[in-house]
Amino acid sequence: MPPIDTPTFGLLLWAAIGYGLGSIPFGMIWARVMGLGNLRDIGSGNIGATNVLRTGNKTAAALTLLFDGGKGVVAVLLARAMAGEDAVQIAALAAFVGHCYPVWLAFKGGKGVATFLGLWLALAWPVGIACCLTWLAAAAITRTSSMAALVAAASSTVWAILLGHGTALLLGVLLTLLVYWRHRANIARIKAGTEPRIGQKS
């Protein structure tokens, strides 16, 4: 954890900015723009890229992935350009919470995987790249998006230590715990052998 140098009001301001950026539901926006219907009535009902892919529209899924990751990047880079590293980590955590619990959707948002990866790419790009490669490897082996997300999240703190970004370790642990919490239903389905595969319509 970096030293807390930013005044309390400043930290609250960056928390609000991060939350606001993170809470933009790009999956629902792209689904509506492309006439794909209400994501709440499709597949798992989730607003993330994996569920958008279940509509069969790969372009919409790719855009959702890009923009959900991008809002994490923007939150971090804005805070880094205008405040200290303590504010950066507060903005990052708030952006993730905003994606998972957006006020606009009655606090029922996504599971945060794309935002998680975007945050790490902006916080410490070597860790972010390592997490993305871990996700790709796990997805290729298991063909299950949620399993890949869980493996990538668990690996993030290991990569942070190995690649010399220990000041983000506490943030990494918090983000990982939130990823696992948001995937608790997926974990139950993985154990039961009923978790859908990547691209599978449901």
Quick take:
The protein is mostly helical and 202 residues long.
Describe the structure.
This protein has ten helices and no strands. The longest helix is centred in the middle third of the chain and has 25 residues. It has 202 residues and is mainly alpha-helical. The model has no long low-confidence stretch (mean pLDDT 90). It is globular, with a radius of gyration of 16 Å.
List the helices and strands and how they pair.
Blueprint: H1 8-22, H2 26-33, H3 49-53, H4 58-82, H5 85-100, H6 113-123, H7 125-142, H8 145-162, H9 169-182, H10 184-192
Characteristic key phrases:
202 residues; mainly alpha; 69% helix; globular
Termini separation comes to 42 Å
Q: What is the overall number of helices?
A: 10
Structural class: mainly alpha
The fraction of residues assigned to DSSP E strands is under 5%
SSE run: HHHHHHHHHH
Cα radius of gyration in angstroms: 16 Å
How helical, in percent, are the residues? 55-70%
Mean of the pLDDT scores?
90
Regions with pLDDT < 50 over 5+ consecutive residues? none
Largest sheet: none
Shape: globular
Q: Write down how many β-strands occur, each being a DSSP E stretch of 2 or more residues.
A: 0
